[in-house]
Structure formats: C-alpha cells, structure tokens
Amino acid sequence: MRMYDLIEKKRDGKELTKDEIHFFIDGYTNGDIPDYQVSALLMATFFQDMTEAERAELTASMVASGEQIDLSAISGVKVDKHSTGGVGDTTTLILAPLVASVGVPVAKMSGRGLGHTGGTIDKLEAIPGFHVELSNDEFIDSVNKNKVAVVGQTGNLTPADKKLYSLRDVTATVNSIPLIASSIMSKKIASGADAIVLDVKTGTGAFMKDYHEAKALAEAMVSIGNHVGRDTLAIISDMNQPLGKAIGNALEVKEAIDTLQGNGPSDLTALCLELGSHMTVLAGKADTVEEAKKRLTENLNNGKALERFKTFVESQGGDPRVIDHPELLPQATHKIELPATKSGTVSEIIADDIGTAAMMLGAGRSTKNSEIDLSVGIVLHKKIGDTVNEGEPLVTIHTNDSSIDTIKEKLYASISVSDHAVEAPTLIHSTVR
Ligand code: URA
Ligand code: CA
C-alpha cells in the first residue's frame, strides 16, 4: 500500500477502505509516514469529507493506536459525558455526584484547562487536599464503592490523535467535522465508557458558532459512537454566554456546591438535569428521561446529591468541610465590583472574552505550562435578558492584583446593555440520537 495512492483517492472524492485507514494511522503513529503526506490527506479530507464508515474506521484506528482503559471490573453501564468546551462550564462537578446518587457509575477522566476554557481537574484541585492521581485499582475500587471517581488523564491514550491534532493545528485542518468528531470520540472510547452523552455547544462562545454546524458535529459523533458499539446521544446547548455565574476554579466549586444544594443558577441546574437524565437512562437506571429528571431533581432537593459529593471529595482526600464552609476554598484578596454605566437589559456577554479576562486574572493557562491561581475569577450578577440599573454591579472580579484596569476594560467591552427588551437565549436546542 502506498500513502500516495490514498491521498490521490481522497483528493478525487473516493472512499478509503478500512485497511487503508488503518495503514495511514498506524504508519503515521509509528513514524513511517511523514507529516507532509498526512497533511495532504488531511487537506483532501477537509474538502472531500468522509463517509460514516470512514469516520468510524478512522476513530477505531485512533483508539487502537494506544492504550485503552478497561472498566470491566466496575459493575453496571459506565456512562461518560463530554462537552465540546465552553466558559464557566461547571457541569462535571455537579453531574458526577448527581447521577452517582441514583446509582449510575461515573468513572471519569478529565483534563486541565487551556486558554479561555477551564478544566475539571483544576477545579477539583481547588478543594484543599483533593488529589486526582489514583492508581488504576484505587480508581476502580472507588467507583465500585462510591459510584464516582474523577482522575486526571493517564496512560498513552490515542497517540495518533495527539500527533494528528498538532499537525491539523498548523495546516488549517482543525475545522473539519469528520476530523473533529473522530478526534473527540477516539478519546472517549479509549477511556472505556460503554455509553456517551455529548454536550455540543453552539453560539458565540462555542467552537461551533453556527447551530447547523453544531448539529452536523453532533450527528457525526453519534453515528461514530453507534458504529463502534457505544450507545451515544448528544444534546446541543447554548454557549452565547458563560454557563452559570461563576468563572474560575474555587468560584466554580462553590457554584457546584450551591447547585447540589438546589440553589444553583437556573441555566446550570437545567443543563445538569438534562444531561444527567440522559446519562441515567443510558445506564439503565430509569426508563424515561422524565422519570430520570424527577429522581435527579429530588436528589438535588433532599440532600442526597450533596451527600454523594461529600463522599466523593472525602474518598479522594479532599476536605469535606468546604461544603458548609466555602471560605475554606482558596480566596482572592480583592473583590472588585463593576457597576453598570447605564440602565437597561443585558443583551450580550461575550463568553470567549469573559473566559480570557478570567485567564488574565490567573484562573486559566495562556500556555500549557503556565501556573494558575485557583482563587481568582469572575462572578456574573446579570445574564442575558436580565434588567440592570445604572450603578448596580454587573460582575464581581476576584483578584489578587489590585491594578487590573485592562481586565476591567475588557469586561466592560464584553458586556452590552441595551435600551430594548432582550430575551434570554434558549438553553437546550435539540437532542441528537
Ligand atoms: N477537540 C478535540 O478534542 N479535537 C478536535 O479535533 C477539536 C476539538
Ligand atoms: Ca459556571
């Protein structure tokens, strides 16, 4: 087999066979096929797309390129959740104990934040003592005992994806649905889940700004999952503004605790209930989404979800007193309010720019190796559609540096107040299965 022939075939819009796809992925992973030939194939794929069968084979071959996590020692259907990324997305901290509280086993691997988006692992580390490195046996025991454990990424999962993603980054081939879908799904599948719930974001703060593109990505991922034997479902949700009100690590832990007590922001609560209900049904712990939602809502209100969060925190070495005493979480020295300069209705909160402002405060990493400050971040007091009076605070900035004029300007520039009535954006657009 020659790479040249594969490039020519894809250039001319023909379908690659399973063997050809495995030849290319294996050859690229072990260094036999050079970057320039793979670049050409990626660009041909960008223009010619891939069939559903090709997408599934590409994913399967990327999964096979590295280690795979074996979760078979955990009883029950293991359901994972993945979000395509947003700002202030605190859902995993809430969902993991919430669905565990109705018996869904959650064995989750999460990542750290980069750029304007935060990572679950960083957020968990804001809880004093919490550790995210568990041995494989500890991880499995923890899930069997408490139904929930969250660890940092370990092992050499999907090396083909790592290499391809870096190459796509410098060859203008990131933004291709078959390539994004296979990249995301290969990582989920290699992490061992039996079933997968995807939260595909759309809106100004999302990777897929346009609803139709988000839907095409969701359909592509659901098709791949089902092709490779993992029950997969996607919802398409709004990212026209940050999710919830808190952006920043310790601040989001506090927001998660509030939500688990039934006092969370309405959008964050609704999204967690929606994702959680689908996870519960896929895990076979409820027959219908309605029934699942009812039980999850009960557990937010009767303290069971919060109780599960406490067990989860304790079992990974964290200080459970943070639940009743959030002041034990890292605290910033200054809390600076930004007052509205006019009265009206909030019409825009540019999620990416709020995320970048939080990063500039130190809540996120500008490069992979930057240090982060777990205490800092931003709390929104208003969301799109809320009315505000001149002088009322729009946001509170939690910072350890009092000279933050550029950040204040950035925040003012990213929040618009209109004289006209504005509706809150629709939170959940559709479900793809
Ligand atoms: N996220 C991924 O993991 N892969 C992509 O290709 C794009 C976004
Ligand atoms: Ca949030």
From TrEMBL:
| EC identifiers of the protein | 2.4.2.2
What sequence ranges are listed for the domain Pyrimidine nucleoside phosphorylase C-terminal? 345-418
Protein keywords: Glycosyltransferase, Metal-binding, Potassium, Transferase
Q: Which SUPFAM superfamilies match?
A: Nucleoside phosphorylase/phosphoribosyltransferase catalytic domain (SSF52418), Nucleoside phosphorylase/phosphoribosyltransferase N-terminal domain (SSF47648), Pyrimidine nucleoside phosphorylase C-terminal domain (SSF54680)
- Could you say which cofactors this protein requires? K(+)
The family database entries (Gene3D superfamilies) matched by this protein are listed as:
Nucleoside phosphorylase/phosphoribosyltransferase catalytic domain, Pyrimidine nucleoside phosphorylase-like, C-terminal domain, Transferase, Pyrimidine Nucleoside Phosphorylase, Chain C
GO MF term (any one)? 1,4-alpha-oligoglucan phosphorylase activity
How is this protein annotated for GO cellular component? cytosol
> Would I find Transferase among this entry's keywords?
yes
Q: Name one GO biological process term.
A: pyrimidine nucleobase metabolic process
Which reaction equations make up its catalytic activity? 2'-deoxyuridine + phosphate = 2-deoxy-alpha-D-ribose 1-phosphate + uracil; thymidine + phosphate = 2-deoxy-alpha-D-ribose 1-phosphate + thymine; uridine + phosphate = alpha-D-ribose 1-phosphate + uracil
According to the record's subunit comment, the protein's assembly and interactions are:
Homodimer.
Family, according to the entry, reads as follows: Belongs to the thymidine/pyrimidine-nucleoside phosphorylase family.
Q: What does this protein do?
A: Catalyzes phosphorolysis of the pyrimidine nucleosides uridine, thymidine and 2'-deoxyuridine with the formation of the corresponding pyrimidine base and ribose-1-phosphate.
What protein is this chain from?
Answer: Pyrimidine-nucleoside phosphorylase
Q: Which organism is it from?
A: Lentibacillus cibarius
